[in-house]
Write a structure and sequence with these properties.
about 325 residues, two-stranded parallel sheet, alpha+beta
């Protein structure tokens, strides 16, 4: 349920600062910001039994150190299986022990401020074809106040304080982690490649602005206490516009709309729905030119209220968290 985390350590002891500088000396960099020369240390290194990557960033001016890593990759060598709250504290304690070998007097977990937190949920589907059917449907959805990015095996909606993403986990694992893991433990690498083949992943990435608003003073030692299922479920429902139906065929859509709304309204909604889903790569841009944002919002809300899914003759079971599909 947890993946990438970024920590900020704002108050380091003098001895710790010195050891940080010495350790990162070879990675010292400079940048000019508003005509001011800024010095910083930026370094990535593989640590732990599974050779997982951790990024260090030290600012001499602010005397702050930040760490960023995928906690499940550090803990178990991969992030195919979700890292559940029961193991989060154990993984963090192991990480702290590794860092204590590098930096003496390293701050305790209670002083690690969380400034980025990625959480996720797996849907293990029966086939790769079904996975891509879901991705095709999800690519047609506009998440409120987020900019959408479409790729071959993923769709991402990016906002100012948090982002949501659906993607083919098998393709992502093979591209980014398989070659590293197969050198360390080929059995685990082959097994994870097999198990991730039909895995659709939903991921929410929360940045500092979001965390400060909803989880102020969040530190590493408090991470096991967060309501991960509740948070993921809430974001998924919002993404799906609270629909309990993923897809709807044309006949059922028109019948439903005529039963709920006046005929003229139902026809407008039906035509908008048809145009929106017939050619997503072209029509969404055309709709945004032809209709103002308030009209698009009103139409989408009316379709959601009527529980009209995406235009398709293929019936897909609804996605929910917890899920009817296996998750790990």
């Amino acid at each position: 349920m947890i993946d990438t985390i970024k920590f900020l350590l704002p108050s380091l002891s003098t001895s710790c600062i010195q050891s940080v500088k010495e350790y990162l000396l070879h990675s010292k960099k400079q940048n000019v910001l508003r005509d001011v020369l800024i010095e910083f240390y930026n370094h990535s290194e593989n640590i732990g039994s599974y050779n997982s990557n951790i990024s260090f960033f030290y600012s001499p001016e602010k005397k702050t150190l930040s760490l960023e890593l995928s906690l499940p990759k550090f803990w178990q060598g991969h992030n195919v299986y979700m890292l559940y709250p029961d193991n989060i504290n154990l993984a963090l304690q192991l990480l702290h022990a590794h860092l204590m070998r590098i930096f003496p007097e390293f701050p305790p977990l209670s002083e690690w401020q969380v400034v980025r937190l990625d959480i996720c949920y797996n849907f293990v589907l029966s086939s790769n074809q079904l996975l891509h059917s879901y991705l095709g449907v999800l690519k047609t959805i506009d998440y409120p106040r987020h900019k959408k990015y479409l790729y071959d095996t993923s769709v991402m909606s990016v906002g100012t304080s948090y982002s949501c993403k659906f993607y083919d986990k098998g393709t992502e694992f093979y591209k980014h982690d398989y070659s590293r893991l197969v050198k360390i433990n080929s059995d685990i690498a082959h097994l994870m490649r097999l198990l991730s083949q039909n895995m659709l992943r939903f991921e929410v990435s929360m940045r500092k602005q979001y965390l400060l608003k909803y989880y102020p003073n969040l530190t590493a030692d408090k991470l096991p206490q967060l309501p991960y299922i509740e948070l993921l479920s809430k974001k998924l429902k919002k993404y799906l516009r609270y629909n309990t139906t993923m897809t709807t065929n044309a006949t059922d859509a028109l019948t439903t709309l005529l039963n709920i709304y006046p005929t003229s309204t139902a026809i407008k909604l039906y035509m908008y729905w048809q145009v929106k889903h017939n050619d997503i790569s072209i029509n969404l841009d055309k709709i945004k030119i032809a209709l103002n944002r308030s009209t698009i919002y009103r139409y989408n809300r009316a379709l959601s209220k009527a529980n009209i899914g995406i235009l398709s003759n293929e019936e897909l079971p609804p996605l929910s968290i917890p899920s009817q599909f296996p998750s790990n």
